Amino acid sequence: MNKESYRYPKTTSGIKTFNKIVSTGKKLFAKNGYQATSINDIIAKSKIAAGTFYIYFDSKLALYLYILDLYRVSIRKSSADATKGLVHRYDIERAGIKAFITYALKDPLAYRIIWESLFVDFDIFKNYYESFADSYIKHLKDFVSNGELRPDLDLETLSYTLMGISNFVGLQVIFKKDVSEVELDRIIDEAMSILDRGIFVK
């Protein structure tokens, strides 16, 4: 996606410093935005020598892209773990929505970091969601083949619709702040009911 790169350390002390830079960058990008955060800010908050940053990252953009990719990988893993062993698409969608929302509740900076990419570079934002959509489409095709999904559906549109549900139902839950497990399940079941039955009276 971008030529900016990072170098992952091999020593324990190096890994500790690397993770400190990543953690600091994540907090500052989320709080102040990408443009308003400088490398000097990250260096100062990380309490590292000026040259240490460049041992691991070519630039501020390289650090941001690394953090964004961490979210891409970890969100997919949380969904994969939650849906492991499930065979029906309804159950997979429900578990996937809950996994994403639970992830966002545990790491509320995720929304800010991911959506900040829209202001960093539109192509980064576009590629982030297109990669999720491409993966989604591949999985959905199997459930068209086995008869669980309608064959006339445009799977690209469906993938973005499903991602939109996860994203914005996730915001609904986060806005409520202290949501119990019972309330979380009620909200997810409501979203699934809309998926299952639609919203229009025929």
From TrEMBL:
<dbReference type="InterPro" id="IPR001647">
    <property type="entry name" value="HTH_TetR"/>
</dbReference>
<feature type="domain" description="HTH tetR-type">
    <location>
        <begin position="15"/>
        <end position="75"/>
    </location>
</feature>
<dbReference type="InterPro" id="IPR023772">
    <property type="entry name" value="DNA-bd_HTH_TetR-type_CS"/>
</dbReference>
<dbReference type="InterPro" id="IPR009057">
    <property type="entry name" value="Homeodomain-like_sf"/>
</dbReference>
<dbReference type="Pfam" id="PF00440">
    <property type="entry name" value="TetR_N"/>
</dbReference>
<protein>
    <submittedName>
        <fullName>TetR/AcrR family transcriptional regulator</fullName>
    </submittedName>
</protein>
<keyword id="KW-0238">DNA-binding</keyword>
<feature type="DNA-binding region" description="H-T-H motif">
    <location>
        <begin position="38"/>
        <end position="57"/>
    </location>
</feature>
<dbReference type="InterPro" id="IPR036271">
    <property type="entry name" value="Tet_transcr_reg_TetR-rel_C_sf"/>
</dbReference>
<dbReference type="InterPro" id="IPR050624">
    <property type="entry name" value="HTH-type_Tx_Regulator"/>
</dbReference>
